[in-house]
UniProtKB/TrEMBL annotation:
Gene3D superfamilies: Alkaline Phosphatase, subunit A. Zn(2+) binds at D92. The lineage of its organism: Eukaryota, Metazoa, Ecdysozoa, Arthropoda, Hexapoda. The keyword Isomerase does not apply. GO terms for molecular function: alkaline phosphatase activity; metal ion binding. It is an enzyme of class 3 (hydrolase). It comes from Bactrocera latifrons. Coiled coil: none annotated. The gene is ALPL_7. Its EC number is 3.1.3.1. It comes from the Eukaryota. This is alkaline phosphatase. Binds 2 Zn(2+) ions. Its cofactor is Zn(2+); Mg(2+).
Length: 104
């Protein structure tokens, strides 16, 4: 097979492959986002998997949510039975001085 014929076949295959790849109808940012997160649905023109809560765009909504959360936590009795906190240091290549400083 001649080089010219082989080059033509390769060129045709590359062009065919380029045309079979679906083009993104959205802007470039949406294309990259859909490739990185294929399970999430774009919110442009389609329904999203996350529904918006009424009023969540306002500051008052979040202030009320914060106040309600604090009130709930203040009325919750403290845990007196078991330890609640665990501190774990994970480090790679930590020297003796860094390790000692993390322990104090």
């Amino acid at each position: 097979m001649s080089r010219l014929k082989l080059g033509g076949i390769v060129c045709c295959l590359l062009l065919r492959t380029a045309y079979t790849i679906p083009a993104c109808a959205q802007d470039d940012e949406d294309c990259r986002e859909s490739r990185m997160h294929p399970d999430l649905v774009s919110d442009r023109g389609r329904l999203t998997s996350q529904s918006k809560i009424a009023g969540e765009e306002t500051t008052e909504y979040w202030l009320d949510q914060g106040k309600q959360f604090v009130k709930e936590k203040l009325h919750t009795p403290a845990n007196q039975n078991i330890a609640k906190n665990v501190i774990m240091f994970l480090g790679d290549g930590m020297g003796i001085t860094t390790h000692s400083a993390a322990r104090t």
